[in-house]
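Throughout our pipeline, every protein is held as a single compact record rather than as scattered files. Nothing more is needed to write down the fold, since each code stands for a local backbone conformation. For reference, a complete record is included directly beneath this paragraph.
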Amino acid sequence: MKARIAFRPLSANHFFMLLALSLLAPTSLRAADGPKLTDVLKFKPVQEGIEYQTPTADEYPNCKVDVEKNGKASGWVVLGPQGEVLRRFTDTNGDNIVDQWKYYQYGIEVYRDVDSNFDNKVDQCRWLNTAGSRWGIDKNADGKIDEWKVLSAQEASRVAIEAFINNDAAALQQVMMTPQEIKQLGISNELARQIQENLNDVSGQLKKALSAARGLNSQSRWMRFDATQPCLIPADEGKANQDLLVYENAMSIVEAGSETMLVQVGEIVRIGDVWKLTSVPQALIGDSIQLSSGILMQPSITSLGNTEAMAGIPEEVQKLLDALQKLDSNSPSPSDNITEIARYNANRADLLEKLVEASSNVEEKNQWLQQMIDGLAAAVQTGGYPKGLDRLIKLEGSLKGHQLSAYVSYRRILAEYSARLKAATADEDRQQVQSWWLEELEKFSTENTESIDAAEAMFQLALAQEFSGEAREAQKWYEKIAKTHSELSVAKRATGALKRLNSEEQPFRLDGESLTGGKVSSTQYKGKVLLVVYWATWSNRCQEDLPLLKELYEKYRASGFEILGVNIDQTPENVRPYLTKEKISWQQIYEPGGDESPAAMEYGIIMVPTMFLVDKQGTVHSRPSNVEDLQKLLPELLEK
């Protein structure tokens, strides 16, 4: 008896078909007796943009389609040339009709379409494993997500950006908070009103934001989520009747042609297993960049929404808060001219300064003061308020000995460095600016050793010294960071950098997650000469080195030469297609986080490519600066 396969289109919009299955034991049917490989490979995911493995025509003879049966469930499995799973089509309820369509990348399931009510229509879409954790519900089975059941903050930013660049208000609406959700969280009246104002006319706001986003279009691509750690707002702060988990001011990095751009996603709030936005994304462009503050993370004085609490706010403070809210609600768009943006930033700084003076509580004073410093520094750095530098310098002078003294000094240095660079027109001028920058960082680090900002300043100094070839000077700064700020992540990078700089003639050990699943360790290569190369798809230098690297691999592999790649792209989406296109066959370690991923932190990687040449005993022989050096070193090392 042979299994029957029937193809019936679900709609004219996609290729999905129903599979009628006979309930046969997997071993009772040869692949030749089942559906043709070319037929099952016609199946496509309902959602677009899924990266999954499909064999090439010349690989077809080594692929096969088998029957699977596991209790009540049965279906087809498609196996690739190496025996890896490519597809699974499963009948979960025993009615001989497929109700789950599963797609794999390198043997790992990355996406699944589900007919959950068995009406022959896909009504759920799930992204899995290396593709993420999204779980979307398509109530009317029209191929569009109507609501999200599971959505991480990172993936919420991706969905929002894709809706933004495609001018898809309906898709954007699915990741925006709703009035019901505002009520569900118990957000206080005044904050609820402000958030609701942000959510009104999403379609109109989207069109306005998109028209101002020069260079962004449907060909642009979300690259990664960029945000500081999430913030927890406790329920007893009075902003909501439950704890709120919030990303204060999230960004997304978007690829637009040959350029990368920042798009402000704003506040993102967790509601159950789904993260939602509280405002429409805004592109940050050139000199018109302007960062707007979120609503929920404002100092708690602004969140008092009930009459009893409002009565405790001095009238003068309340007037200033109202004025600040009005100013922010009418803030200029990125397309407005620089004069209007500068005026906005100046007026905002004026109001914050008055709030500092009017607030009686020290904590509230410092919150407003810190917000003022951040706003001035950002406005100067982005060109939105050049005169703000004078105000920062004045603030720095007035805050000597204050707990925010180091805080304002470091941001003044950053802002002034940006202003000086913009004013420099010749190479000689830029060199002078660079010298000034390093002198200021060293002075700041010496005078404010215990400050968190000092750790970052010292790291900038170490980078500058290392890039200049002054490894010993760089090492001094790395050692100081590791000693004075061991609790910070920058100290872990500094410790890794010290390990890298002193790695020659030392045992090499690196463990990490394989791009194809499982663990990889450099110890697996003992007995061979191993090149460990940190790289990224976006690096031109890595791309230029690749042909010669592949040539050396082919030439010396039979003699005991192996390569272990460590990719530091922020997300793996570009990595797999790149490896396939370039036919790179050596193992790859990949862990999220880019240059802050565990594998990169282990050796304090600051640039790519970075290479370690490890001998057969597992000891670092050298750190080649380029592939040409490797070409000279390999033959001798392989002979030893």
The two ends are 62 Å apart (CA to CA). The first strand starts at residue 9 and ends at 11. Residues 151-296 form one domain. The chain has 20 helices and 23 strands.
